[in-house]
## 1
Amino acid sequence: MTTPLRPPPKKNPERRTLSPTIPPQARSRAAMGLTAAAAEGRFAMQVCGECGAVLYPARDACNKCLSVELSWQDVDPRGELLAETTVRTSTNLYFRERAPWRAGTVRLDAGPIIICHIHGDVPPRARVVMTNRLDRAGQGVLLAMPETPAPDMEDDPQLRAMTSDPKLRRVLIVDGRSDNAPAIAKALHKAGATTIFVGEAEGWRPNPHRAALQAVPGVQVLPLDVTDSASIRELAGEIGGKVDILINNARFIRPGGVLARGDTAFAQQEFDVNVMGLMRLAQAFGPGMCARTADGVNSAVAWVNILSAYALVNMPEFGSFAASQAAALSLGQSLRGEFRDSGLRVMHVFVGPTEDDWHQPLPPPKVAPGSLANDLVKGLQAGLEDVYCGDVAKELVARFRAGPKVLEREMTMGGRS
Amino acid sequence: MSALAGLTQALASGAVRVVDLTHTLDPDFPVIVLPPEFGQCARFRIEEISAYDERGPAWKWHNISMGEHTGTHFDAPSHWISGRDVPNGAVDEIDPGVFVGPVVVIDCSAGAAQDDDYELTPKIIEAWEAEHGRIPAGSWVLLRTDWSKRSGAEYLNLRDDGAHSPGPTPEAIQLLVHDRDIRGFGTETVGTDAGQGGHYTPPYPAHFTLHGAGKYGLQCLRNLDQLPPTGAVLLAAPLKIKGGTGSPLRVMALIEN
Amino acid sequence: MPTPASPTTRSRPRQSYEGVALVAPASVPYQRYSTQTAHWWIARALRMALDAAGLRSGDLDGLSMASFTLFPDTAVGLTQHLGLSPRWLDHIPMGGAAGIVALRRAARAVQSGDADIVACVAGDTNHIDSFRQLLSSFSRFQADAAYPYGYGGPNANFALLTDRYMHEYGATREDFGRIAVSQRDNALRNPNALMKKPLSLQQYLDARPIADPIALFDCVMPCAGAEAFLVMTVDEAERRNLPYATLEAAIERHNANPDDPIQLRGGWTVDADQLYQMADCTPQDIDLLQTYDDYPVISMMQIEDLGFCAKGKAAQFVRDHDLTIDGDFPHNTSGGQLSAGQAGAAGGFLGLVEAIRQVTGTAGPTQVPGARRAMVSGFGMINYDRGLCSGAAILKGNGP
């Protein structure tokens, strides 16, 4: 049974913070299919298009029929643990510092033999359910989970090393004026976050969400304006060493594309908040978080950007806003590269139109703050990199993958073919 | 002795003192808030270019950005629709002689302390004139409310029905503009109009009346409590922005000790 | 001996290695760490073998080379580096099977006349940290699908295999310990072995765990070293008055039994019957056995798969036999890699070079009395979850 995590004691100021290390990250291109599936929490294996064999490790040709028609598909994750070991020493620093580490061999019901991580609640030689998760190198790895859930199983140290679980962590919600801020704060509290810092710009204006925010245990409202470098630096100076998860929910949105507006004033604000704001936040909070990814129970784990699904493809009705979202997505990808060596994860939550003033003229379905908060927290708990929140976002990404040019054409025709 | 030599001597001796009526340009200083579907006045922002570092080893400098109507600022006639056809209505066209002139201060601080929506009325102006004499033509008229001593949310004083801060009634501003032919009107609040000034007829009477008549506005002033009711000289020179409708500026007053 | 499964029906008999002589076994004393390069170690082994045969490097016309740490060079670059002009050249990237595979190919080259004198050499250096670097670039499947899971290296791979072997066949840590302890006894008689202190079964059992159930004395010690021998015709060996061994039979097999979920047997199961058939002998005729002992469980697998006992019975076998030099089943007489050291690719030559010494009566302090027929087995290249290469050879000589 997993020993439940306890709140960490206050840090000993005389002890050096452990330097971040990451597990091995080298992979073949074929193997990255696992990573791509893990980024969104899917358990997928290569399947031969000719003979149907399920293959693992990832290959470039089928080892049953030499076909090169291989594709990644979701497969039955059940299997049996055949053998196991507990690695007590390693030449790799990441595992050396985290030993003992349980690993084993699982025969998947679908066929392949898998060397994998083993959750502490899996009994020897038991039936298991495989999950595909991102490790701290950001690569897909397979973890055998018990067939039936056990109490506190999320606290298993090997599992926790792969997730961004808010439990016992301190979170910064960047924009307390956002309609989604109270719901996110509530969901984080429910998930066990201990401190929830909430940024609030322009304290000289009333914030209609302030009361709701302050009603959530652990919430501290602090001045923060993503368009103001000095305000970001000041807050980072105060709490930068205590932010384990940063949720960038700052957003400026107005309807219109290029021609409907006739000027660049709103566009500037969109890019200033949605793009430059992200950059300013990352410059101020990123280095400190990267330095604290090995800092025990409440180590820094994740950077969350809430993005419009129209970051993937432009929606001309909100054309300028969508462009800012595409830019923010691209910056987030850059951050993934820049954070890589620390293991700090960048999670993107793609949402369709949300229930708010600016999407009021759009027909449903729209994402309510509660569902966004729920999906966001679940994404953190699963350690995902990409979360598609709501039916519109899910449909959009499916269409995007099916054919970006077709989708682009449909969007320019009002979203329909 | 020439007049200017006399002035410089008086400044040197302390007989004449310079009072700074300007707020510091600070990213967190409030600006006027319009309904969100309208374009908004940009807040003052400052980004470091270098600070004696690898971006510039021996020097420090910033890029700044803001709206024309950010911080302590000057309103030109072209700011308002009523003044769009006024000759020389943009800041770069205004005769620089306008930027130095006499100033009178009407102290409404006691009333404003009692009532957030305190109104400057013709009656108050006339009472002031009964004590200090008729407002000379070509004067700046500043409305002292001590509003500049407020900070944070108290300053804009926004409620669900909008901002609440003192300002002139239509009649009062018409009296100053048409009957007294003043140079301009200045306030300690974020605008020359009252917070609820949109509900007068015409809406925003100070803006409408001042700029329609080619007069100027000053807002977000401070230290008005250091000025005498009459006898001071105001220096208020906006940046020379091509076609500009206003500009942040350093506003100073010369007073005799 | 169990009947091994054969994937194909073989219609043609294997040709004998008649007329081929193995001479000049050379072992450069191992070092835990070396500041020298693989080139240096290989050159020393080559020179030692040539000196033993009274030859000069210009006399060589064939070279077979195995090394993990020669990068960026291969056997090709080595010819210019060492001033050789061979007409036959081979590079054997097969780790623990490299010795057997090199021997098989060199023997055929000499037999067919493609070369007259082939030097088979394996050598690796071991810098501080070079083992870690070697691991990180070992194979694509390892990098993709094994290292990210605790990065236990081969220890973790073989721990899984050992765990399953113990579960399936009831072997205990004491059984593995018997192999380690008897090899340590042998090593104490080999002045070149890195391990110099005796090892008791209790010490073995009490050792620090590395990757359960593998503990410290189940693991080899990576080191620097080189091994070499020469392959020539029997006529040539006799003309030069060199003690020689003949190659009675040899097999190799790669990626055998791929559908076994966990490797509990090696490729020997496929070909062992032909090995004995070709050598015209049985396991009972073997005087000593040199297995590839990267972990004791692998030696047990070889004892079973090469027919010395039934599958799953090696634990009982090691309980019933004395595996030391003077015992009834001399095994890894130089101490094996567990006690002599694991010098990279040279580890794949260790047992073979020792076997040549044994059957030519030149093994000195580790000499098994009456050793005339030796079996050498090789096993190598963990690619993902199992070792892919296996091989074995039976050598014969005139003995001590």
Note: Chain C has 14 helices and eleven strands.
## 2
Amino acid sequence: MGKISNQELIQKISSRFADRVFAFSEPTGLLTFETSKEEIIEVLTFLKNDLDFNFLTDITGIHYPEQELPIGVIYHLHSFRQNVRVRIKVFLEEQQPTIPTAFNLWRGADWMERETYDFFGVQFEGHPDLRRILNMDDMVAFPMRKEFPLEDPNRVDKKDFFFGR
Amino acid sequence: MSDIKLAEAPPGIEGSGFFATSFDKVVGLARANSLWPLPFATSCCGIEFMATMGAHYDLARFGSERPSFSPRQADMLLVMGTIAKKMAPVLRQVYIQMAEPRWVIAVGACATSGGIFDSYSVLQGIDEVIPVDVYVPGCPPRPEAILSGVLRLQDLVRNEPMRRRNSDEYKELLNKYGIQ
Amino acid sequence: MNEPAIIKNLDRKETTTLNLGPTHPSTHGVFQNVLEMDGERIVSGVSTIGYIHRAFEKIAEHRPFYQITPLTDRMNYCSSPINNMGWHMTVEKMLGIQTPKRVDYMRVIIMELARISDHLVCNGILGVDTGAYSGFLYLMEKREHIYEIYEEICGARLTTNIGRVGGFERDFNDIAFAKIKKFVKDYVPVLKEFEDLFTRSRIFMDRTIGVAAVDAQTALDYSWTGPILRACGVDYDVRANEPYSSYEDFDFDIPVGTTGDVYDRYMVRNEEMYQSIRIIEQALDKIEKEPKGVFHADVPDIYLPPKEEVYNNMEALIYHFKIVMGEVDSPKTEVYHCVEGGNGELGFYLVNDGGRTPYRLHFRRPSFINYQMYAHMSSGMLLSDAIINLSSLNVIAGELDA
């Protein structure tokens, strides 16, 4: 696969950031670690400029209601030259989660962050145009959070007894 | 003799040099055989509609040669694909912009009932916002099914009484949707 | 004091606001761009999307793994088999299933057919938007033939739901193989004819060369992938960089452009169709050498047994029950798997908590990420150029909005 092994990456990242990056793991071979929202931009900059992770594959979110810090923001980076990927997670508080934007590193972060805001309500500080992107502007809830119901609660045409509920 | 098939004349009284029939039937005949479609294609069913308009299935055979992309010159609104709640006002606006007489075909499961997308963001059938004349099932329906839907609509159009659009029932129907 | 109103306005710049979409015929789908126009030229634009947002990711959290395949169909509906296969391979990667080579090659055939059907629609529509309808009609005829192959294999034309986790639901029959062979033979002359109509056509060249040129650095900065990134000169293709489904066994070229304009995107897509035909030919040869009749991995935990065995065989009945009732254990892990879709890297990020449904499933949708530069790159462009730029980006509304 890649020209650089995950072990080398772990070593390089942890020698730079020491205990500010943690929880290293490799689910299905993809290096994953966590950091905090104070460090994230520095970590991303280091990965982009020094370790050659030039490509931002994806930004998305996740919600674990039972955790102390329930809202997660997940970055997937990809180094084209080394042909290796890395996944970074940052966990945030449920009320008013904020994290600095990656827009200044990659312009492509623009809509990915808007989508994450739309679904999970994560405020990306410094984002030039943080509005809802897929859902309607007048929506107040964040639909991908676990407590939000899948089906429209206002439906009148669906009789529960037809569905055995 | 060419092999072009002409539409059959409605029943009437025929003599030398004249043919008499009811006005309703003539108008119905003319309308039914030149329905101008307005393709309101949002997703997958729109791709099947592309195939329907293409050379293989050729919707033009049934008098729908000209897809009208302006609602003002269209007779038949074909709603193809999922209509999200964000899109519903747009669809309604397009319907209001169409001139009477206007007909609507809901093509595919999503337009008919929301289909497999029973979620907070999808309108569960376009008949929540506009009246629908023909429903075509399928996810997506095959081009033959779309053609069949158009033919069913032609039947409706052919037999529609002239006064239907002025009747109280029709006004009540539109009022139900809040359309004047 | 008495000067006419018209002179007063001379020093003021007048721009008009043009609302392009969401039902505009030239937008090929439902997206809206509010453009500020100075005559024919676009000054700035704002994109609005989400008009067919169907909450795929939310629905996926409530569906067992095998019921998510129909959702992926409806994402990029021009090449739904690629999405299906991508999803199956994601689940297989999570469960650690190794598929037999024959299954891999069968998948490659289907995926390359899907890539052809995606690219031909895009290039055909590009032709329509530059004012030539005939090329589109030639190619659409061939697309019907691809759909006939799909029908032979899975029974559906567009939203195929093809294959299962672990392989295919049934083997390709002889008619399917015959149709694939016929298609491979027939398609190249049609594509050549299509190229003759466009590639050196003065009108087409004048309309497309130099339009919406993007340099490689900007494209990477915006996370572009797929043919439009390769048109900028970056040779990134998931099929080569991280081979899945035994793509490493095949010999094919990855075409790259130089300028990243609409013409280069057209050329890259055309060349990719030739390469796809090459891959299918090789796959047909390779399948001959594999043992016949193998069309799924031997994973009774995951792959539904055939119905006649369910009725006659205790073991098969138990497996059937376990799979349908979601009693099968799955590992607690997370997977990112990507395939080269019609428009670029189609990624599946799956977080599993061991249940029968994903805890979280995120689709990295290339159309969504590729489209975000559109409003930005449109400024300064002529409106008619912006339209062909849009058709060459090949934004599929279903994939854009998820």
Note: Chain B has one domain: 36-176.
